[in-house]
Design brief:
The protein is of the alpha/beta class. The protein folds into two domains: 31-73, no CATH class; 77-290, von Willebrand factor, type A domain (Rossmann fold). Helices cover 38% and strands 21% of the residues. A hairpin with a 4-residue loop joins β5 (119-125) and β6. The longest helix has 24 residues, at 242-265. The chain is elongated and about 90 Å long. The two termini are 32 Å apart.
């Protein structure tokens, strides 16, 4: 994974659609003139420049007032907002646990952000509680919250509540950030669009949707399956029915189209991930799409 993501880092950015709101923030992956320890060049003084930047020796030599300019590298805040309700403990189409796919996706985003020198934080939660990790750039810290997130997801966990989680983000984070929301189709499909609009007015948002295993998944052909509540058992005979397979495929495709359309109306991009093997190309495609989406 690292060697592939190094190539990704050279070509891809998490692209900001909006310009800066104040002098402390900037466009992603860019180098700016400003204050830092790295000297860049000299130029003539213009009205409004800070007199503290005047280079008096250079001014004496050139007989015109010269000011120093420095390279200022601005960082973004990358916030991973992940659903850890019990549905994330079920299976993805690849046969992997959805929590494994979700953790891997969060790790890919954290890796890209970390290697751009950004700050990475996380919030994960369900109907019962939310857990917050502050914004930092330490690799061990990132590994820690990824591990804790993975361990927090069990079939016995409380149910998901994505709307409550986003309410918590709105109340907690005031400074503009890149927010990557990770959940599954059912919860993203039930999200309050007005709540998303409110969050999107302040932050950049992207969605990573971890897909559910279909009932007719060929990997499970020799097993009976049980729903998340343990109340419904679906036999192998029923799941091998072609009409059931066709109807489910149509439902899931309509669900994906509906989610994409709803988010795209708000100028938000998303990607659907069905396995850890497909996570990197899907996320790279989403980041590329982010460059061209219109708000």
């Amino acid at each position: 994974m690292p060697s592939y993501l190094v190539k990704v880092r050279k070509k891809m950015d998490i692209y900001a659609q909006r310009r800066v709101r104040n002098v402390l923030t900037g466009n992603y992956g860019s180098v700016f003139k400003g204050r830092s320890l790295d000297f860049d060049d000299l130029r003539e003084y213009n009205y409004g420049d800070d007199v503290k930047d005047i280079d008096w020796k250079a001014t004496a030599r050139s007989r015109s007032v010269m000011i120093r300019r420095y390279i200022s590298v601005r960082k973004h805040n990358i916030l991973l907002v992940a659903d850890n309700g019990n549905t994330m403990a079920t299976l993805a189409p690849s046969g992997e646990s959805k929590k494994e796919v979700a953790t891997f996706c969060a790790g890919v985003m954290a890796y890209i952000a970390k290697h751009h020198g950004d700050l990475v934080g996380a919030i994960y939660g369900n109907k019962a509680s939310n857990k917050r990790y502050a914004l930092k750039e330490d690799s061990a810290y990132i590994e820690n919250f990824l591990g804790k997130y993975n361990e927090s997801i069990r079939l016995s966990s409380p149910t998901s509540d994505l709307n409550s989680l986003l309410h918590y983000v709105i109340k907690t984070y005031r400074e503009r950030s890149f927010i990557i929301i990770i959940s599954d189709p059912e919860n993203v499909g039930q999200i309050d669009t007005e709540l998303v609009r409110k969050l999107h007015a302040r932050h950049e948002i992207m969605f990573i949707v971890v897909e559910d295993s279909p009932l007719t998944n060929g990997l499970l052909v020799n097993y009976d399956t049980i729903d998340i509540d343990g109340k419904l058992r679906l036999s192998r005979f029923f799941r091998q029915n072609k009409k059931v397979s066709t109807a489910e495929s149509q439902y899931r495709e309509a669900q994906r189209v509906g989610i994409r359309r709803s988010l795209r109306r708000m100028g938000i991009v998303c990607c659907f991930v069905d396995s850890t093997n497909h996570a990197i190309p899907r996320i790279v495609g989403m980041l590329e799409e982010q460059k061209h989406v219109r708000r």
